[in-house]
Each structure stands twice: as C-alpha cells, then as structure tokens.
Specification:
323 residues, Rossmann fold, D-amino Acid Aminotransferase, Chain A, domain 1, Dna Ligase, domain 1, 3 domains, 10 helices, 34% helix, globular
Length: 323
C-alpha cells in the first residue's frame, strides 16, 4: 500500500505569514524512522511536506481508487504551520481530498488542542481534572484564583508559555505575558503537587491502554520545555503503583480518549493531587512518536518494537476505514 508520511519542516510554504506561528516540529530522524518502519511493514512510502504544495504532491503519489487500485493512506505527522487549531489543518485537507489518514479527525484535534474546551468536556462528563479559571478579553477578574496555580496558553503544547505562580502579582505578570506572546485566551489551573503519569492508548472500537509511565520529576514542580525537548526526564514504565490505582488511571484515560473523540492513538497526561486522587491534565491528539518517546517505551514493555508500534497504529486507521 502507498503511505505518504506528511510532516511540517518548511514553514515558508504559505501565501502569507499570519496568526499564531507553530513552535512544534518532528525531527527528521523521527520522520525517517516512521518511514522506515512502514517500509519494513511492506509499504511504499513518500515524505510529503504539509504546506501549500500538499495537494499536488499527494495527487501525484496517491493511487486513484476509481481504477480499482488499493487505496493509499497518509500517516499524518504534521503539527500545522500557523493559525488556530493547527493540528486540524492537514486532516481537513485530507478529508476534502478523500484520502484516508492516520490519527484523529479535525474535530478531535480541535477538542484536544483547545485545553479550555477539553476541560469543560471533562467537567461535563464527570472526569476529574484540576479546578480552572479562564482569562480572555471578556473575563479579566482573577480574584477567585487559588494559589499556587499553573498559567498556560489555551492552545499550545510542550509546556510553551507555562508558568507556576504563587500570588496575585505573579499571576498578573504571567497572564499578561501569555496573552501578549501567544494572542490566546489564558488557562489557569489549580496546581497539583503529586506524581505525574502518562497513559498511551491506541485503537478505536476496541482500545488498548499501554502500561502506565511515570515521569520522574526529580523534585521539580512541573516539566518545562527543556525537560521535554532537550533533556527529557526519566520515565518509569511500568509505573510502580498499586493495581487499583493503575486500573483507575486506565479507566479515566480511556473515558477521556472517548470524550474528546480521539482516533487511532493519543496520550493522556495525568497527575495526582496531595491526597493521591487522579486528575487529567490534558489529552495529546498528536502524541510524540519519537523512537525514545513515551509511546515507544510503553510499547516495548508489551514486547512490541518501534516498527511494530508504527504499523499497529496504521492498522488501527486502516480498520477504521475499511475493516
């Protein structure tokens, strides 16, 4: 089968530079690792930039199923170039072109990337998540915020713009910095002082939660950008926790996965409060597939190497369309 691995590396492939600029990008080593894994699975592959030339590139590579050929697919690794809800941009183009793809729908990406919307859904479905407040142009009253608190942009990942504040002065400074830097509404969460975990999930009608990882914070209050991109903190997998807590985390994570309409794969980040209660921090619909990332670590514990992991995710997408 023909598989196009779509990614973002060329951020100049736009008509105009406009709106929020993306700060996330897969390293080429990971993109090529995914490509190699797919080739090991017997597929013909191509690397295609998710920019303003994507339609022509895919039209030249993909088979036309009207001719009786097997449908091709896109393995989507594109975080988007710019603008709001950027994770949804490439999937939206693929929907329009009629090309099956790996990963969540535009709607799923929007629900997960917008942390305020996601937390509202968690509250509506009685899923535990830290208490939160929102600062935007319509709401400037921060008098009810409880300290310490975490301040973050509503639609960023990898801890961009994240700050821990302890008083009103620090809160106002952090809110103003996020608001002016990212031009987004600001999410403020009650800080939870407990241990941090991640649950990697793949599947659709039938879902599987991989062994839980614990992020060893090494005494830190939270993971910053360097901890995620430069010097990753150690991850313990499987996490050394009681079976009852493991089952609770997996149950909550699977419900969150469903609530935000995730497809094929995603990662749920969790944290304990001071009493050991589980809370959802966020759901990442574009969870990292780096060979040394959480998904690869958790899959390895189950006896699946990296190549098998990538092809399992592809199989889930294929079965969702054609199974």
């Amino acid at each position: 089968m023909k598989i196009a691995v779509v990614y973002n590396n060329d951020f100049e492939g736009v008509i105009n530079t406009f709106g929020i600029q993306n700060k996330e990008v897969y390293p080429m080593e990971t993109i090529k690792a995914v490509q190699e894994a797919l080739q090991q699975g017997g597929h013909e592959t191509a690397l295609i930039e998710g920019n303003n030339r994507i339609i022509d590139s895919l039209s030249n590579f993909m088979p036309k199923i009207s001719k009786g050929e097997v449908s091709g697919m896109v393995f989507n690794m594109a975080y988007g170039i710019q603008g709001e809800n950027r994770y949804s941009h490439v999937p939206s183009i693929l929907e329009m072109m009629g090309i099956p793809y790996v990963g969540s729908s535009p709607a799923g990406h929007v629900l997960a990337l917008d942390k305020i919307v996601a937390k509202t859904i968690f509250f509506q479905q009685n899923l535990p998540t830290p208490k939160f407040w929102v600062f935007d142009e319509y709401n400037t009253d921060l008098s009810e915020v409880e300290f310490p608190a975490i301040v973050k942009p509503k639609m960023e990942s990898i801890s961009f713009g994240l700050n821990l504040v302890y008083n009103e002065k620090e809160l106002n400074e952090a809110v103003n910095k996020v608001f002016t830097t990212f031009q987004q509404s600001v999410l403020i969460e009650k800080y939870l002082p407990g241990r941090e975990f991640a649950v990697c999930i793949f599947g659709n009608a039938h879902m599987e939660a991989l062994p839980i990882l614990e992020i060893d914070l090494k005494g830190k209050k939270f993971q910053n950008i360097d901890d995620k991109l430069v010097r990753p903190l150690p991850r313990i997998c499987p996490a050394q926790i009681p079976m009852s807590l493991e089952n609770e985390m997996k149950t909550i994570s699977l419900k969150a996965y469903r609530a935000l309409q995730m497809r094929d794969y995603a990662r749920v980040d969790l944290r304990l409060d001071e009493n050991g209660n589980v809370h959802i921090l966020e759901v990442n619909s574009m969870a990292s597939l780096n060979p040394d990332g959480s998904f690869a670590i958790a899959a390895k514990v189950t006896g699946r190497n990296y190549n098998r992991l990538i092809n399992i995710i592809l199989e889930h997408a294929w079965n969702r369309y054609f199974g």
